[in-house]
Design brief:
143 residues, alpha/beta, Nucleotidyltransferase, domain 5, 3 helices, 5 strands, 27% helix, elongated
Length: 143
């Protein structure tokens, strides 16, 4: 004779999982992953900014202006060039004048990608003295 441990007439039994400590376990797992995971540092433009109050006067002949206008045109001095040509032009200017500083003037309405491309070209030309100049445009107030 077989012995059954089920109550008589109760039907098939369902498995029962205790859920009282699920919240605690979820927080413990979350804390574990927060403390053991490595967050990637944001990669951006590496620039060394001068200390506050450090202003230097540069002679006009030692400044080369590179501008990006709202139409997406790149100007080196007064001539319109392609963004890919900036590297060669600036490298030639730097070879002629070792004290040359680059004034990068970018319109707020200019395409952001173009500004990054021009900045990259200046870095590839080994321009170490780059100044980001704020551009005051019509219809705007403040930088």
């Amino acid at each position: 004779m077989a012995v059954s441990l089920r109550k008589a007439g109760s039907g098939p039994s369902k498995p029962n999982i205790p859920t009282a400590s699920q919240g605690d376990i979820a927080f413990l797992i979350m804390i574990f992953f927060m403390t053991t995971s490595m967050f990637a540092k944001e990669k951006g433009l590496k620039m060394v900014l001068p200390e506050l109050g450090q202003a230097t006067k540069i002679k006009a002949e030692n400044i080369l202006t590179v501008a990006v206008n709202p139409a997406g045109q790149v100007l080196v001095g007064d001539q319109i060039v392609n963004a890919s040509d900036v590297r060669d032009i600036v490298a030639k200017q730097l070879a002629a004048n070792a004290n040359l500083a680059i004034a990068l003037r970018v319109s707020r309405r200019a395409p952001y990608r173009l500004m990054i491309d021009v900045f990259d070209q200046l870095k590839l030309a080994k321009a170490d003295r780059i100044s980001l100049v704020p551009v005051m445009e019509e219809g705007t107030s403040g930088p």
